[in-house]
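Problem: given the chain below (166 residues), write out its structure.
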Amino acid sequence: MTDVQATETAPEAATGFDALKGMGTQAEAVVHEQKLDKLGRAYATGKRKNAIARVWLKPGSGKITINGREQENYFARPVLRMMIAQPLSITERSTQFDVVATVEGSGLSGQAGAIRHAISKALTYYEPGLRPPLKAAGLLTRDPRVVERKKYGRAKARRSFQFSKR
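Solution.
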């Protein structure tokens, strides 16, 4: 029996590059499980800039409550309300879930981004099958951009003090 016949008849003895190719297919077939608390809600934390949002997602009529207030009262700008509703509209679940969120830190724009991130994560915990469309839209990725720190010898992070010739 030659070496070529031995490798063809024994696929379990694959070595080198063939073994690595097989590992890639196993890693891609990761199955995510549903994660719910005792009350049947999905919980997730989202972050953006210095804002941290905690979101509970439960079956309902599509009502969104932020820090105990309606979303129209908390976010006056329609763009911010649209940002929050993005994960629900992409997955076509706008009227199927109630969202209760608490958010703190940063400004309104950062808070809206944090809530959007948290809602996206909570949707994947409630229905793991919704992960591919949310991932394709980039809603599961945490935006790493944060405010740059102030350096010594500078007025701000990069701005120098005013130069005086005399």
